[in-house]
Amino acid sequence: MSNLPDFAKHNPDLNFINNLISEIDLNQLQIAKALGVTARAVRHWAKGTRSMPYIAQYALENLPKKTQAKFIQNLNR
């Protein structure tokens, strides 16, 4: 089964976005670095002042736990 992006799955609901962010084992700055966006963009998404683009939602939904742990280790070096 393929896990390709499907824009029909975009959920810009603020509660969904905040749950998605809180499920990631990274803080907002780390999420921003992992996605290649600014921390300000992540703050806007978390506050609901800007809608999270689907591609960012998709990336967060598919960020493996191993990748998250590796990312944290690299930041702490």
Descriptive labels:
77 residues, mainly alpha, 5 helices, 60% helix
Describe this structure in words.
The protein is mainly α. The protein has one domain. It has helices spanning 14-23, 28-35, 39-47, 54-61, 65-75. The chain is globular, with a radius of gyration of 12 Å. It starts with 13 loop residues before the first helix and ends with a helix.
Brief summary of the model shown:
The protein is an all-alpha fold and 77 residues long. 60% of the residues lie in helices and 0% in strands.
What structural category arises from helix and sheet content?
Answer: mainly alpha
Mean pLDDT: 86
| Number of separate helices | 5
Cα(first) to Cα(last) distance is 37 Å
Helix coverage percent: 55-70%
Percent strand equals under 5%
Describe how the helices and strands are arranged.
Layout: H1 14-23, H2 28-35, H3 39-47, H4 54-61, H5 65-75
